Each structure stands twice: as C-alpha cells, then as structure tokens.
TrEMBL record, chain A:
The keyword Signal does not apply. It is found in: Cell inner membrane; Membrane. Keywords: Cell inner membrane, Cell membrane, Membrane, Transmembrane, Transmembrane helix, Transport. This is ABC transporter permease. InterPro entries: ABC_MlaE_roteobac, Permease_MalE. One of its GO terms (molecular function) is phospholipid transporter activity. Could be part of an ABC transporter complex. Its main location: membrane. It is a multi-pass membrane protein. The chain crosses the membrane at residues 6-29, 49-70, 146-172, 193-219, 231-250. GO terms for cellular component: ATP-binding cassette (ABC) transporter complex. The keyword Zinc does not apply.
TrEMBL record, chain B:
The keyword Nucleotidyltransferase does not apply. InterPro entries: AAA+_ATPase, ABC_transporter-like_ATP-bd, ABC_transporter-like_CS, P-loop_NTPase. Residues 5-242 form the ABC transporter domain. It holds the Pfam family ABC_tran. GO terms for molecular function: ATP binding; ATP hydrolysis activity. SUPFAM superfamilies: P-loop containing nucleoside triphosphate hydrolases. Keywords: ATP-binding, Nucleotide-binding, Transport. It comes from Phaeovibrio sulfidiphilus. This is ATP-binding cassette domain-containing protein.
Amino acid sequence: MNLLALVGRVFLAFLTQVGQFTLFALVSLSHCLRPPFYLRLTARQMIEIGYYSLPVVGLTAIFTGMVLALQTSSGFSELAAESSVAMIVAWGMTRELGPVLAGLMVAGRIGAAMAAEIGTMKVTEQVDALYTLSTNPYKYLVVPRLIAGATMLPLLVLVADIIGIFGGYVLGTTKLGFSEHGYISATWRHLEFIGVVSGLTKAAVFGLVIALMGCYHGIHSRGGAQGVGKATTNAVVSASILILLLNYVLTEMFFA
Amino acid sequence: MTDKITLENVSKSFGRKTVLDGLSLSVEKGQSLVIIGGSGSGKSVTLKCILGLIHPDRGSIKVDGRETVGLSGRERARMLSRFGMLFQGAALFDSLPVWENVAFGLIEGQGIRRKEARDRAVDTLAQVGLGADVGDLFPSELSGGMQKRVGLARAIATRPEIIFFDEPTTGLDPIMADVINDLIVKCVKDLGATTLSITHDMSSASKIADRIAMLYQGRMIWEGPAKDVWNSGNDYVDQFVHGRADGPIRMALRA
C-alpha cells in the first residue's frame, strides 16, 4: 500500500469529521436562537448537569485547593508563606484549576452520558421517531443540553473556586499554622476580578464544548451497542482534549 | 382514484452500494400497499426516503401531488404532521411514560394541552386494547407485543392520513403477530388512512394488504392485488412467498 495514499486518506477523513462537526455546531447554535424552546427539558438538563455534578466537582476542588497550599508552603520561606500560599491558591483555583478540572470531571460525567443516551436513541430509531412526530431532534435533544452546559458550568466553577479556596484555608490554618484572619485577608487582597471572570468565561466555553461533543457523537453514532460505546469514548476524549486546548487559547486571549 | 404517494425513478446509493435503482411506485388514497422483499432489498430505505430521513440521489417523491424532495425543515415538519409511523423496534421514547409517548405528537406537534392530550392518549390506548393503567408504565416495563401496541397507538394518535408500518410483526410470536395485524386493519379502517407497509412476513402481508409490491435489488419486479401474489407467474415472487432456498433469487451471503 502506498504510504502517501494512506496519509491522504487519514487526512481527508479528518477533514470530513471537522466539516461535519462544524456544520453540526452551526445548525445546533442557530436552533438555540429560534423557537420553539423546550423549557421543561432544559430545566431537567440543568439539574442533571448543575446539581448532580456538585459532589464530584466539590471533591475535586477541595483536594486541589489543599494540595496547592501544601505544595506552595514547602517552596517559600516561613515569613512569606502565609501571603504567598493564599495568593497561589486563589489565583490557581480561579484562573486555571477551577475551570479545567471541573470541565474535565463534567466531560467524563455528562459528556459520556449525553453521547450514550442520544446514541442509544439513534440506534433504536428514537431519533427518527422524533422526526416523524414533527419534532426537530436538534431542538428537542441538542439545544436543551447546550444551554444547560453553557449556563451550569460557570455556576459549578464558581462553587469549585469557593470550595478550593476553602480547602487551602483549612490546610493552611490547621496544618501550616497560619492565622485565620491573616489567610482570609491575604486571599481577599489577591483575588482579582479579571481572574474570576476569565475562569467563568472558560467554564461557559467548556460547558458548551462538552455538550456539543456529547450530542455530536451521540447523533452520529451507528451500528448498535459497539457504536454507542465508541461514541461515548470519542465524546469524552474529544471534549477533554478541546478543553485543554481551548484553555490555552482563552488564557492567551485574556492575559497576553 | 387519486394517488396519495407517488415515487418516480428514485435512486439511492451508499458509497458503492446501490440500494434503490430507479424505483417507481404509487399508492392510491385509502389503499393499503405492502412492499415485500428480502433483507437488504431497499424496503426500509424506501420508507425513509419518503419521510425525508434519507435524501434520494435522484428521482421524485410526491405526496398528494406535491414534490417533497428538497423541502425545507418547516415545510417538512408540516408534511410529516400528516404521517404516522410504526417502527420495527417500536422506537418508544424510554425516558417518557407510555401515555406521554402516545400523546407526543399531540403535545409537541399540535400543541394540545397536556391534560387533554392525556385523555386522548388513554382513548387511543383503549383502541389498541390497552388499559389506562398501562399509561403510567415506562416502555422498558412492557413486553415486545405491548410495545408494538403502544407504538401503533402513537402512530395513530394524531389521526394521520398516511401511516407507515415497518415490519409490524417482526419479533412477535404468531398469535401476537395476528393480534397486531387485526389491530392494524381495524385502526386503518377507522381512520380511512392510506398505508404503506414493509414486511417479509407473508401471513401479515396477505392480511393487511390491498395490493402487494415486490422489491428486488432496488427495483419493483412485481405489483398486483394481494390475492394474486400466490400465483403471480413471476419466478422471483413465487420463490419469495413460498420461502424456497432454490430459485432465481440468490441470497447475498456476504454483504
């Protein structure tokens, strides 16, 4: 087999995927702006994404905040420690670790569930059935998930920021012997508006990406149980990679 | 009699595989046409082309004399509101209780209030022989035969003019299959609907069909009144309806 032909085929397949996904994203987003809207379904997705992800995201955040504090304290002299630990925890959580880790956890939890649910509906002809009942699957299945993803992830990240900083506070005041008042005032001094806002913006983008990937791979899955399994894997992997990639791009846009 | 559905010269290929090869057929208003044919002969693709789930490569598909190939989303939705379809695996929405499945077309398609839609769903369930208590169950709690009945109820709940049946008796025991056939005949008569069914179950075909058409390799090779199918004089049809392994039709053992 010709090596060039192989490279060409892989590249063309990649371009096909990118084109197909771009079309899917554009059609889906345009449906977000046009009625009818399914408020009941959107609310259900919001509860699923926002409320039921709280334990996972909260646990991730508290341990991340604690570990940040622990690592930072070992790197600074005792005098500078209190202020710098508080600063690193506040910056790290709000700017990077809050949105990225919450995004990755939700990608695993929600992106997979979306791909599996829609994929199963696809292979059992439920998506076709929606069409025949005069209901657009984009509006009924995709739009509620996109809206819920883009609105709920920022809220989750806000909670993750607070819990993460609290984790740093708990470790700092109990294990490292910092004063409660000193740690809190140092945190306040170093918390900046742009850091929090950039983190929440990232979260909204990640939420949209997770939902888009979950729905795209679900709706394009084919061929029974194996196809649904593959769609689920692809949804999680592609969403995770895109989150890390877009995190860099967004950081560059905000701070460079 | 006027034609309700007309297909002219419809072709569709997937990659190198030609599934429909210049298919033409028509269904008269109020008539029941059953398409028979082996697996992979293009039966399901034909239905999906008419519904617009698959876009044909060539040819014209008219419903009530109006061209439907290339309709925009909204016009397509309006056209589909006059259709009902019973899917092969029933394709019930497993996140919704039975009554909401049946009422789906009423609530989402016609904008009828949930309470009223629920009453009509219960009435429709009664038509297919299911009690009101079934309405609160979820599809996964039903047997295959009951799922088919609910699927039938969902297909007829909006009182459509045209109903499609995709292998209505596949996967059912012979008695339940006959029950479903009876229900189909009864419901269609009540509604006065035009129906198009695909099946490879001959007892089902002869029970629900006015006319039968046979599809082979993406073409129509025979069409006639249902009673003529048993002595059609066509070797292909003969082999199929009598279920013989030997004959002009070679089953593709490798796709």
